[in-house]
Amino acid sequence: MNGGTNLAKKLYGIGVGVGEPGLVTLKAVEILKEVDYICTPMSAKSDSSKALKIISNLIELKGRIVKLHFKMSKSRKELEQSRTAAARKIYQLLKKDKKIAFVTIGDP
């Protein structure tokens, strides 16, 4: 990474496109290989992630996935609660000097 750039206490937002793994940038793959954890949004009703499917053949995922469950609701309170819970998980990892990537489909 750029001559030894320190990634500690960094959170990267990485958009992995719309489904074609070959369109994920080389820089994104480089960062995904170096981070300690990969956070991904998931519906509270599902345990799958389109973003993880896209990157699963590009990098090793085992033991590095943090699933962030988001409610799909019209209730502002429920939306805020799920977003706050996700932010807390990420914050706890950052406090431990972990390098984190948040992957999502499309652009972050």
Describe the structure.
This protein is 32% helix and 21% strand. The protein has 108 residues and is α/β, with parallel strands linked by helices. The chain has a single domain (11-104), classed as Tetrapyrrole methylase, N-terminal domain (Cobalt-precorrin-4 Transmethylase, domain 1). Strands 1-4-2-3 form a four-stranded parallel β-sheet, with helices on both faces.
Could you give the topology of this structure?
Layout: E1 11-15, H1 26-34, E2 37-43, H2 50-55, E3 65-70, H3 76-95, E4 100-104
Parallel strand pairs: 1-4, 2-3, 2-4
Instruction: Tell the overall outline.
Output: globular
Strand order of the largest sheet: 1-4-2-3
Radius of gyration, taken over Cα atoms and rounded to an integer in Å: 14 Å
Biggest β-sheet description: 4 strands, parallel
Number of helices: 3
Top-tier CATH class: Alpha Beta
N-to-C span: 21 Å
Mean pLDDT: 88
Instruction: List the domain count as a whole number.
Output: 1
CATH architecture: 3-Layer(aba) Sandwich
Short descriptors:
21% strand; four-stranded parallel sheet; 108 residues; alpha/beta
Task: Describe the structure in brief.
The chain has 108 residues and is an alpha/beta fold. It is 32% helix and 21% strand.
